[in-house]
């Protein structure tokens, strides 16, 4: 990857997700430190100040922050905290930035910042290659670039934890079960049946979708050399069960956000 895509000075990169929020310090494409907190714990400006204080005391020279958020309320709160309490310049990740790929989406502004950042780092890591960018989080997203880095489309599906919660929440007797990659194929209790069904259902779903997208790219664009970059809170659990090779990087969205800050700070 070309390091010129990244700023030389250290950056604060914040990824605000539905379940968790990552607050990280990056030096070019290297993560120097990362703090993960439950998003639900960030209810007020004081909560955000507290989460930022200790980390920024160790990195006092940082003056630029990239914010990649899918929670609008917290986007605004972090903007206030970073500007007024820490005097930082903020680059918000969205579709108005200069991007290393071309895309059409309707409406354009609804394209998720996390998906934009993941596609950006995918384009940076794999120049002149087709890429399937997969995020295994609260929702599972698949986004596809062809080898000319034109966006071909994507998918949004419920994630593993959301599947488990929905089974519990929308039924009278099914328990809430924690899913793991140790699930056997067939269960012998209600809990183990849920665990097996969700885990193996997800594995086969992801395997099948990746295969269909590869076939689509070969037919539509002639791309046969296709990379898969996978991130998200459950990415390692899913990747370990797949029949195809994927590259796993838990920090891919953070890196992509950092790359976009660099590209848009000239």
Please write out the topology.
Blueprint: E1 11-16, E2 20-27, E3 30-38, H1 45-58, E4 64-69, H2 72-85, E5 89-92, H3 113-125, E6 130-136, E7 139-145, E8 151-158, H4 160-169, H5 190-220, E9 226-231, H6 235-239, E10 247-248, H7 252-263
Parallel strand pairs: 1-4, 4-5, 6-9, 9-10
Antiparallel strand pairs: 1-2, 2-3, 6-7, 7-8
Helix pairs in contact: 3-7
Describe this structure in words.
With 266 residues, the chain is an alpha/beta fold. 37% of the residues lie in helices and 24% in strands. The chain has two domains: 3-95 and 255-263, ATPase, nucleotide binding domain (Nucleotidyltransferase, domain 5), CATH 3.30.420.40; 121-250, ATPase, nucleotide binding domain (Nucleotidyltransferase, domain 5, 2-Layer Sandwich), CATH 3.30.420.40. The protein has a five-stranded mixed sheet, sandwiched between helices. Strands 8-7-6-9-10 form a five-stranded mixed sheet, with helices on both faces. Strand 9 (226-231), helix 6 (235-239) and strand 10 form a beta-alpha-beta unit. Helix 3 crosses helix 7. It is globular and about 55 Å long.
Descriptors:
266 residues, alpha/beta, Nucleotidyltransferase, domain 5, 2 domains, five-stranded mixed beta sheet, 7 helices, 24% strand, globular
| Helix coverage percent | 25-40%
CATH first level of the largest domain: Alpha Beta
Number of E-type strands: 10
> What profile does the largest beta sheet have?
5 strands, mixed
Q: What string gives the helices and strands in order?
A: EEEHEHEHEEEHHEHEH
Molecular shape: globular
Instruction: Work out the radius of gyration.
Output: 19 Å
CATH superfamily of the largest domain: ATPase, nucleotide binding domain
Average pLDDT rating: 94
Q: What is the tally of helical segments?
A: 7
């Amino acid at each position: 990857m070309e390091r010129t895509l990244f700023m030389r000075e250290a950056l604060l990169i914040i990824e605000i997700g539905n379940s968790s929020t990552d607050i990280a310090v990056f030096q070019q494409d290297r993560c120097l430190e990362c703090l993960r907190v439950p998003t639900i714990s960030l209810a007020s400006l004081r909560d955000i100040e507290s989460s930022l204080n200790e980390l920024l005391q160790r990195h006092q020279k940082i003056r630029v922050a990239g914010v990649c958020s899918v929670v609008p309320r917290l986007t605004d709160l972090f903007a206030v905290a970073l500007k007024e309490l820490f005097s930082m310049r903020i680059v918000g990740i969205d579709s108005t930035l200069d991007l290393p790929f071309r895309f059409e989406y309707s409406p354009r502004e609804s394209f998720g910042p996390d998906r934009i950042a993941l596609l950006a780092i995918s384009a940076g890591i794999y120049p002149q290659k087709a890429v399937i960018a997969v995020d295994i989080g609260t929702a599972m997203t698949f986004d596809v670039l062809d080898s000319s880095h034109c966006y071909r489309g994507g998918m949004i599906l419920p994630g593993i934890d959301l599947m488990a919660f929905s089974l519990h929440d929308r039924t009278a007797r099914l328990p809430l079960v924690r899913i793991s990659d140790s699930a056997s194929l067939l269960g012998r209790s209600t809990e183990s049946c849920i665990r097996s069904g969700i885990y193996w259902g997800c594995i086969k779903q992801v395997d099948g979708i990746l295969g269909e997208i590869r076939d689509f790219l070969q037919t539509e664009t002639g791309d046969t050399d296709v990379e898969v970059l996978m991130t998200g809170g459950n990415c390692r659990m899913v990747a370990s069960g797949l029949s195809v090779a994927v590259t796993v990087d838990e920090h891919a969205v953070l890196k992509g956000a950092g790359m976009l800050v660099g590209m848009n700070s000239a």
